[in-house]
Amino acid sequence: MSRTEKSLSNFKYSFLFFLLTLVLNFYSRKIFLDELGIELLGVNTAVYNIINFLNVVEMGIAVSVSYALYKPLIDKDEKSINEIISIFGRFYRIIAKIIIVVAIIILFLLPMIFRGNENNIYYAYFGFVIIGISTIIGYLYSFKHIIISADQKNYIVTQINSVCKVIKIILQICGLLYLPYYKYEVWLLLELLFSVISIFWLNKTADRLYPFLKVNLIEAKNYGEKYPYIITKIKQLFFHKISAFVLSQSIPLILLYIANVELVGVFSNYQMIIMGITALLGTVFSGMVASVGNLIHDTKNALNVYWEILLIEFILVSSMCFIFYFYANFFIDIWIGEQYRLDEWSFILLTLYLFFNLIRQSDIFLSAYGLFGDIGAPIIELILNLGCSVILGKRYGLPGILAGMNISLFLVVFLWKPFYLFRKGFRASFMSYIIKMISLISLSIISAYAIYSIGSIKFNYFTNQYIDLILSTIFNYGGFVILQFVVYVLFFEEFKSLIYRIKNILKK
């Protein structure tokens, strides 16, 4: 299979499983709210974010190892593959031990973190322990499957994780609806159970696909000297990972500090929508990381591919933001009730946050090139992120927190990372990126205004609000995408070239 064919295969499986799990996730969230309430949802969200903060210890090891695996996989160097995977497994065992120690310390701090929510402290403890155990087991045993992703077979990982997730969610819904007691406890125990199942399933799959794979965790400590660049990349990625985790996990915790668990719960509903969108696009483009990694090692055509990926990404991102802005609140109303809506300013800033958070095509190429040496950038992003969010959050609440996030995203993700990529990777003019982005943003705004001006198509022919919402979304999304597609074909040669290649692949 060619790189394009493998990326399309990754997308096909990702999209199908995404739709299935998306519907189940939203239905289970509604049942969770109906059965357990907004306060417990807020506690659950905060606990997950605390655990996710512990994952910063991972320090980008997976990305570094994936980068190190590209060339051995191309060369079919089984010895090097085994040694690199062994190093990966050893690092993950060390991380598991660190997380155990830090988690024990946090256990003693939970009453202070959840001050004012003493009625829910039992659930905070139980949730933290169960989710923590699940995380630790993941680090102890979940390392073999990285070879599957690095070998451009991420759709297999998606399939396994999605099957486990679907069965888990169905059982969780049944537990909430039919169990008289211990509903939250069963909910969490199912999370742990299926996390373990997916880990061992992935490991067995890796063993079957790569029968030569022999991990030696004891000898792994002697392999480090042979692959010093892995350690170098990990050190560089450490700061990037800290910044990324703070950005993705800090809003609920800052809200918990400034406001209360109820607002954390309300925000988490919007966060769930954003995570769904981000997960879809992230899975689609993660299938391209290995493609780009191989591309960089065997061709000089990387810049042309960058423009093609940028155009695809911009159509998807701009259309997602368009639909999010016009339909997210309506969806919240019919999903869980208008009492769970955010205020207007928070919603506008959240849409902008979604846009900046999704425009990450440069990350794909930075990972593939192994360009993580700009450790000053994530440090500045971290300071801007926390500083602006806390200061503005205390004064303006959630809108202030989101404004702080957007400031750091704009300066670092939108401007600095592309600049660094063009300077160190492509060795091309950064102004070409600026001109292209201005063109894309301008055309997207014009397209959005055109669709909005002719009137947002709404269906009111059915008694079921969900059907009305789905049809309205499909028609308006379709109209926006078609308009964008036509504009891109007219204005961008790279897009026409990409469409031609995809057309030839589909004819096979």
Automatic annotation (TrEMBL):
Keyword list, A-Z: Cell membrane, Membrane, Transmembrane, Transmembrane helix
Location within or outside the cell: Cell membrane
Membrane topology recorded in Swiss-Prot or TrEMBL: Multi-pass membrane protein
Primary location group: membrane
Ranges that cross the membrane: 12-28, 48-70, 91-114, 120-141, 162-180, 186-203, 238-258, 270-293, 305-328, 340-359, 371-392, 398-421, 433-454, 474-492
InterPro entries: Poly_Biosynth_Transport
GO cellular component labels: plasma membrane
Protein name: Sugar transporter
Organism encoding this protein: Riemerella anatipestifer
